[in-house]
Amino acid sequence: MQMNLGRGTKIKKYFEGHGFATGELRRQEEVQSTLYPGRTRQAWLVSYADGHEEHFEEEELRSGRDGKTAPENGDGKPSVIVVKHLPQRKGILKTLEEGLDYLEARLSGDCQANFSCKDMYAICRVVRAFNPNFAAAYVDEAFIEGMHCVTPIRTLLQALKEELPAYLSAAAEAPSFHTGDVDTFSEKILRWWRGNHDQFPSWGAAARKVFALTPNSAGCERVFSLLKTLFGDQQYAALADMLRSSLMMRYNSRTVG
């Protein structure tokens, strides 16, 4: 989307040794081009809060850098200029509002029940308690009460409270588990629990149940696969009750393991 520059547009420029300064486009003037030596071109007069003024050609503003060469030859001196607060930016944000509202409604449960992710979001929030680094900083008895949303460990909540001091003591001495790489993070967390679960067996039992949860869409993907197997091109006109009954019979009669 082409953004128009205009009077009052805010920019930010980095000055080496001084940091960022905010300026404002005042007006266009004819100047000797710094991008195309020997040519006179239109440039924007930029005024900064301290009274300093300088000119920038449009390519310099749009490139995001205070360049000294033509854009096709690459950026010049890396003194960053960021054009912000353009009117079109508000339009872009406006178009995102509906999608963000939809996402918020699904996470908060303020939508049709079959589209709600509220319960799953709550589970994802509380299972962080099994990361020793998180537990050492945030987990207390009130947090454990919130873990009631994880059905498989509801019967263990009282025992988790009783063993909490021992768990927090061990968690405080745990190494830092960096989350940058999922595989490495998972391996280190599992190794820590294998070496420490005997100190707080109820937490160990809860951890095994939580780690067995499958945070993916494999279940519904299996249903889609069964539908594709059961109904081909010749069954597109099948009624809903036929689809439902056939799928339930096939799914419930499958061999597991």
From TrEMBL:
<dbReference type="Pfam" id="PF05699">
    <property type="entry name" value="Dimer_Tnp_hAT"/>
</dbReference>
<feature type="domain" description="HAT C-terminal dimerisation">
    <location>
        <begin position="187"/>
        <end position="235"/>
    </location>
</feature>
<dbReference type="InterPro" id="IPR012337">
    <property type="entry name" value="RNaseH-like_sf"/>
</dbReference>
<feature type="compositionally biased region" description="Basic and acidic residues">
    <location>
        <begin position="55"/>
        <end position="69"/>
    </location>
</feature>
<dbReference type="InterPro" id="IPR008906">
    <property type="entry name" value="HATC_C_dom"/>
</dbReference>
<protein>
    <recommendedName>
        <fullName>HAT C-terminal dimerisation domain-containing protein</fullName>
    </recommendedName>
</protein>
<feature type="region of interest" description="Disordered">
    <location>
        <begin position="55"/>
        <end position="79"/>
    </location>
</feature>
<dbReference type="GO" id="GO:0046983">
    <property type="term" value="F:protein dimerization activity"/>
</dbReference>
